[in-house]
Specification:
Plays an important role in cellulose degradation. Shows hydrolytic activity against several glycosidic compounds. InterPro entries: GH (IPR017853), Glyco_hydro_1 (IPR001360), NAD(P)-bd_dom_sf (IPR036291), SDR_fam (IPR002347). Keywords: Glycosidase, Hydrolase. This is beta-glucosidase. There is one protein chain. The protein is an alpha/beta fold and 791 residues long. It is built from 27 helices and 25 strands. An eight-stranded parallel beta barrel has the order 1-2-3-4-5-7-12-13, surrounded by seven helices. An eight-stranded mixed sheet has the order 20-19-18-21-22-23-24-25, with helices on both faces. Helix 21 links the parallel strand 18 and strand 19. Helix 8 packs antiparallel against helix 9, helix 9 packs across helix 13 and helix 14 crosses helix 16.
Length: 791
Amino acid sequence: MPSLPKDFQLGFATASYQIEGAVAEDGRGPSIWDVFCHLEPTRTKGANGDVACDHYHRLEEDLDLLKRYGSDMYRFSISWSRVIPLGGRDDPVNEAGIAFYNRVIDGCLKRGITPWVTLYHWDLPQGLHERYGGWLDVQESQKDFERYARLCYERFGDRVKHWITLNEPWIVSIFGYATGGNAPGRSSINPQSTEGDTSTEPWIVGKALIMSHARAVAAYNQDFRESQKGQIGISLNGDYYEPWDSSDPRDSEAAERRMQFHIGWFANPIFLGQDYPKCMRDQLKDRLPQFTSDELNLLRSAESDFYGMNYYTSQFARHKSSPAPDTDYIGNLDELQTNKAGDPVGLESGLHWLRSCPDLFRKHLTRVYRLYGKPIIITENGCPCPGEDKMAREESVQDEYRIKYFEDHLDAIGRSVGEDGTVVEGYFAWSLMDNLEWSDGYGPRFGVTFTDYETLERTPKKSALVLRHLVDHRKGKDRDQIEPTWYIKILKTPAIQRKANIEDRFPYLCISKTHELFAQKLDSLSIHFIKMVRILITGSADGLGLEAARQLVKRNHTVYLHARNAQRAAEAKANCPGAAGAFAADLTLVSETKRLAEEVNAVGTFDAIIHNAGMMAGPFRKTPDTGIPAQTAVNVLAPYILTCLLTPPKRLIYIASQLHAEADTSVKDIFWLERGDSQFQDFPAYCDSKLHVMLLANAVARRFNNTSVMSVHPGWVATKLGGEDGPDKLEDGVDTYVMLAEGDYDQSLTGRYFEPKRKLAEPTPQCSEVELQERVVDACERLVGLKLPGI
């Protein structure tokens, strides 16, 4: 698997108009998108951003999602008309708008998340568009943009250290002023547009955006960089193009020309301080504005720190022999999704134009870095799943296509970095949540969080829960997946079992709304909440431990495995796809058990720890460090050591056995140091060890006030430990493991004993005797010198 840099950062991205809502609240002025959506509703499928995702009122909830997803960074945009309602350099500032973005920034920092701020993500103040045509006035627009940028630096720059001037100026210029598909909808080739000139306006707007970027960067470099010590760049979109016929040099030229029209148009002046690409000058001639010498000098002095790359897909380019019309804006060629041989460029997503092409993404990264020489930040990358626009929530959250898309594109980054020498410093997934997809309305769902547009409830998709792990795994870091939110579990009551495929239709849904509302949609089914948890299961290379881990992973929990050596740990990880990691430690050795505790604590606090490791049959095998039988070392001493050293979890589960009833109740010489190997018998020793571990569990229950401590007899099942003749069902024991790990019981209970099928049972009376409990604790403490916390 290709590696990512150790300091590689993960984030999620949004844009103000797509998520904020509250368009007429707290002094915000209208933007061109407000007007476009309301005056041209047929061009946005009747959608608008009046409410959108209501992020303005749900800010804290959304920032909590970022924290739960393990985000290092959050890229969001400031609504220009929220902070300067009329937009101009002499127009008043809206302090309520400033206050909102202060809350966003401070909320990120409070959660350990680095804010990345985009100054312009397409929502130009309508006041500027009406006053002088907005971006069509090159001189006025750049002056007003500089003032707006300076205001943001002044008010937010003490905390914001990463600025993006513009998002996708190509889209602004072409979709807004050539095709008319986006606000302000100007075009001479779109029958729905009543104004515009496709042959000239996009190129005028492009220059206005380039010079506005330059002035904003120059202002930062001159007056703010030294004191604020931040970075600034721009986000450019652009596909990678391959020739339709790889043997035809005209198609190869067309592919390169298309990328120059798409990327070089902005990147050459901004990053190289040069004129537009020659192929653009050759085709567009005097319709492409000239740069003055002063403007070129400004561009060369306005040095950016990074190249923000928005990448989604790639295409094939086929040359045209006929002359380019004046309305052409792509370089006189055809864009195709299959080549001459009929091979598709990639696997289709939920949008016809977006195909997954990770190999071409790698070529794109390498090409851009070699051309422009700036560190790259992936400021947008993502996709909707096939058919997701028609999916209900329970289908959308199972977004395997999106996960594969993320995996493949992260690997492409790793290959470009590792093999081609490209510098890529971070990755923003688009998007944090489903939102208004501009002129496509609320159909395409790019989010890693499902948005219910009727209730505005957020539901983390599976991709949100695994992306952090995908990145960390490629960084060589076994960091756990972050707790996402509340999960619904459907109870297996007889009434539910009568409903066909109910668990296929509604599998462990992740929601943040009250279960009563959702229950109405499930025909009054009995449901309750299960919280995503982090779980450690010792001895989980096979048997009950491995199967319990598999079931918990299926339920989207973060599960760590354990085996006695590295080979067994690797096998366990392979046999439990989706497990967060696997520790290797021989629990017969005190030193290795202590090391395991250190490694587990380094991951963080666990919600549940299952002391599943156990030994039953076998001769007296003296451990080299303590001289006790390996059986008692694993069954009793190791759980004691781990309990002493691990950060106390919410739930501790000790694996007992019905055979504790066959034990010697005197509880003497529990480590066979007096009797020695001549008197050792493995079956009685096993029975004794199970009584001793139950006594230990009850001693812990008396000490750990904030931990629910349980013992469980999982049944005599056909496992390596239990042999082939076990009469009980494996799934009955595993079901109890899962219940206890999830906390799916009255957690005021502690010091109790469970049997298979979640049955609460009563152990032998000796288990409740405090004197016997303390004998076990004292024996362990004397042997290893560790004191059990608590009393």
